[in-house]
């Protein structure tokens, strides 16, 4: 009898990513656990990457595809810089990612992308993509293993869904940075508690617009000096920081 | 679970418990009713939620009514939540190899020897494996969403009105991300003095 064999080129490596934009900042976060089935491959595999001083990309799904995709996006951004002597604007990176994903429409990169950063007009932005390049600019987005746990929580806490503003007031369109960071950390601790593929570590990238008042951020930074690292390369432009926090390892 | 849709959540508060569900009955993706009750009073202090296959919801609610009545007559007292949880468990396990497609959720107050009341919640899988949680339990098609929101919103020792707000927000925001749940919601907050029942206005899409 004829036997059928098949090679499956895809794996699902767990983990979750999340991004929220503010008026003049953007926060992009991801846990650092990488798993295959019930096994943990590593407790530290970054899913969030600095592309430029105003763009950060989070990639979740099949880790091999994710790493290759980020490598190719970075390569295209380097070529752009050599050709145009400046970093590619955020909305152009978003369109580039769409075309790169759709180019592999019939053998897709098995990844969900979330791009966060600062737009040319100085506003914080989040772009989310599906594996074949369909994309949208939003205020917040969760993706990955715990998307179903985190996204309804964000609907409630960021978009104020199902909440009624006090008489004579309206819900804020953008939340302040300290509130956003608290919501991001709470989202990941909750997801870690209830989802086996989420945990170990949390990397939070914070992109601040050019000339932004740093008072609120410095207060947070002062409390987490040993956890926070600046990644900014250029002078007097946008600034990027990364905070590394622990999540439960069980 | 996805044949008719629906979700239930129960939470513990300070000297009180709450149980809430959506009101949808569907045939796969098609909505049929926006007033399908899946939470039933068992005694004055015990409520039972039955998300799952609608035909089994009706069968089991009658079956539990019969068995609780028989218990009350034989024992000459009302059933306590712990005993009722085990009654649910054994009723479901009787059908171990041809189960009812239901994931029951219970909420009630247990009378202590001192006369005080202790909050009690429990959930079970479709063959009667009980889960006695100290904080909250979820079931139904929006269970993963309910877990995520509840884990973020719930805190210990909530007063009845705060517990009502917490369970309502948890349910509404979870079912709004679930195609199989929604179409209105109902909440019961059980306190030693009374049961507060409110029907919530929610998204109808």
Number of domains of chain B: 1
Oligomer: heterodimer
Radius of gyration of chain A: 18 Å
CATH architecture of chain A, by name, is 4-Layer Sandwich
Helix/strand/pairing category of chain B: alpha+beta
The spatial strand order of the largest sheet of chain B comes to: 10-1-2-11-12
Most strands sheet of chain B: 5 strands, antiparallel
Lateral arrangement of strands in the main beta sheet of chain A? 10-1-2-11-13-12
- According to DSSP, the number of beta strands of chain B is 12
Named at the architecture level, the CATH assignment of chain B is 4-Layer Sandwich
Radius of gyration of chain B, taken over Cα atoms and rounded to an integer in Å: 16 Å
Helix content of chain A: 25-40%
> How would you characterize the largest beta sheet of chain A?
6 strands, antiparallel
Assign the CATH class of chain B. Answer: Alpha Beta
CATH fold topology of chain B: Glutamine Phosphoribosylpyrophosphate, subunit 1, domain 1
**CATH topology title of chain A:** Glutamine Phosphoribosylpyrophosphate, subunit 1, domain 1
* DSSP strand tally of chain A: 13
The CATH homologous superfamily of chain B corresponds to Aminohydrolase, N-terminal nucleophile (Ntn) domain
Strand content of chain A: 25-35%
How many helix segments of chain B?
4
Q: Estimate the helix proportion of chain B, in percent.
A: 25-40%
